[in-house]
Design goal:
This protein has about 150 residues and is α+β, with helices and mostly antiparallel strands. Helices cover about 30% and strands about 25% of the residues. The strands form three sheets. It has a three-stranded antiparallel sheet with strand order 1-3-2, with helices on one face. The longest helix is centred in the first third of the chain and has 15 residues.
């Protein structure tokens, strides 16, 4: 549980910071890993928005689709129930490699809000696209396009 981030130090200063902050650097000291046991989106989001708006600096910019956050049943769920998304009573999140998520047909947590189940899902099981009534909207269209680009 938690979040891992790999950072590339583009400058000597950044690479020195890896050592000063006791980050786990590779043998070249160009890359370092950071682990956080929790992810507090409510506290971190404001800082990210301020960084972009005030300084024009994103706090993260993906270069490829490596990781996904899938919806997992918190309890036995029955067909006909509505999923209530992140922070709700029906699903929680689990980080998976993107290729595994796509191969499994996993429903992304971000698209698991106000979605009706068409099949029962056991507690602890990953909710799949095939388990829900898919709503055709821009978010779903973009996700499907991304999955197609990766080979899903």
């Amino acid at each position: 549980m938690g979040t891992f981030v790999v950072i590339r130090g583009d400058t000597d200063y950044a690479r020195r910071c890896f050592a000063e902050y006791h980050m786990l650097a590779d043998s070249s000291s160009e890359y370092a890993a950071l682990y956080r046991p929790t992810h507090m989106i409510g506290m971190e989001l404001g800082l990210s928005v301020a960084s972009v708006m005030l300084r024009g600096e994103p706090t993260g910019a993906p270069t490829c689709f490596n990781s996904d956050v899938v919806a997992v049943a918190k309890r036995d769920l029955k067909a006909g129930e509505l999923l209530d998304g992140e922070g709700g009573f029906t699903v929680w999140d689990k980080a998976w490699p993107a290729a595994k998520s796509i191969a499994h047909g996993a429903l992304p947590l971000g698209l698991a809000h106000n979605v009706k189940l068409t099949a029962d899902v056991k507690q602890g099981s990953v909710v799949r696209w095939s388990d829900v009534e898919v709503i055709d909207n821009q978010a779903v269209s973009l996700r499907r396009e991304l999955e197609g680009m990766v080979g899903g």
